[in-house]
């Protein structure tokens, strides 16, 4: 798109989007670090992730202030308006995702005091890497205004849902085998659920990209993953 | 939107001023009880088109108009149509307030008088009061109806012109940049008035202020280089315009 006649408007919009990318980078990093802290039982790393959430929250505040300023001073319309609206929604998703990373780090500190549950941290780590991949692609789609990549992210979220369902079953098995696994598995399950939610936020960001590019929100027909964790047979087994 | 009927239907309207092709094959439906905004850069043809709607271009010697413009299904360019009667039905408010050099009262009463819309002084008094009230001017001028209209402030003069325009009970009100000479308070008063007038007529407004178009209109038409580029619901035009030229213009880019 050609530049604005008032070039300061372009600088404002570019500036706020650069902050979103910086925030996205911090969230991706926090998720990966938290998963690693869980896997390697690294308490120092977990503490670092918890402390780092403050920077993410501060960026959210800064971006919201900046968006309010752009709306007040520049009265954005059309793509400019959609840019500001999507920035505000995307930072909301990123902030929540940052909170989930922080929660993961907090639970990993608790888990490091307990005996490890066979192979579970590895499954969580794989899931986290997969979700971070989604988040990264959603943000890349945002920067490059790539609705096709965004649509791809929406579809791939089903894979994360499936991973969640399979770790859910794995934890259930561990708990049935040995009741001493129940406490750590409950923590692990919350962690898995939270990572799965980050996947939903990545999908939400992808939907914002589609709105930004096309002006239309996508229909809610994205493929849902396995619904095992919601069925009666699963709950009755517990 | 669909329950509103067309007030004006324009088809294939072309305007030439001498050798200049000012308006190129414009089709527009103006809905009844709706504020329609025409936006576009200077020289895009929006004012030319507005002036076609009450045959103001008849007064321009070099202007040549083709196509048809129907008001309630009747072609306003038909030989049998009297332009003076047409302009009583399709009123106009201009960019600069232009009250007659007469009293406030006479400014408003002049139209109804010459069109024979009142039979008595009392009836005329009533029309003057109700029009000045509708134009949100009554309280400011009720004690000095005999003072000259030109003695009012700019914003008051423009509201006086609006009162004058609605005094003949028009069905359509055309406004060509009605607020460009007004301060923000007077602008807000005129915009509030426009919104109320919608209950009674169709309002068509030409404006250079994108924000004004967004604030007052339900439908927006974007003109560029003599063509109608995009016409649609105002919310859609300002959030997701379909044509890249509309986008460039409303978002302040080089188009």
String of helices and strands of chain A = HHHHHHH
Radius of gyration of chain B: 18 Å
Sheet having the most strands of chain B? 6 strands, mixed
Proportion in β-strands of chain A: under 5%
Strand content of chain B: 25-35%
What does this structure look like?
The complex is a heterodimer of chains A (238) and B (255). Chain A is mainly α. Chain A is built from seven helices and no strands. In chain A, helix 1 runs antiparallel to helix 4 and helix 4 packs antiparallel against helix 5 (147-177). The termini of chain A are far apart. The model of chain A is unreliable at 231-238 (pLDDT under 50). Helix content of chain B is 35%, strand content 26%. Chain B is built from ten helices and ten strands. In chain B, a hairpin with a 2-residue loop joins strand 9 and strand 10 (227-233). Chains A and B meet through helix 3 of A and helix 8 and helix 10 of B.
What's the helix and strand layout?
The complex is a heterodimer of chains A (238) and B (255).
Chain A: H1 7-40, H2 43-74, H3 78-111, H4 120-144, H5 147-177, H6 182-214, H7 232-237
Chain B: E1 6-17, E2 20-31, E3 35-39, H1 46-52, E4 63-71, E5 74-75, H2 83-89, E6 90-93, H3 104-114, H4 121-134, H5 138-141, H6 154-166, E7 172-176, H7 184-197, E8 202-206, H8 210-216, E9 219-224, E10 227-233, H9 234-239, H10 244-250
Parallel strand pairs in B: 3-8, 3-9, 6-7, 7-8
Antiparallel strand pairs in B: 1-2, 1-4, 4-5, 9-10
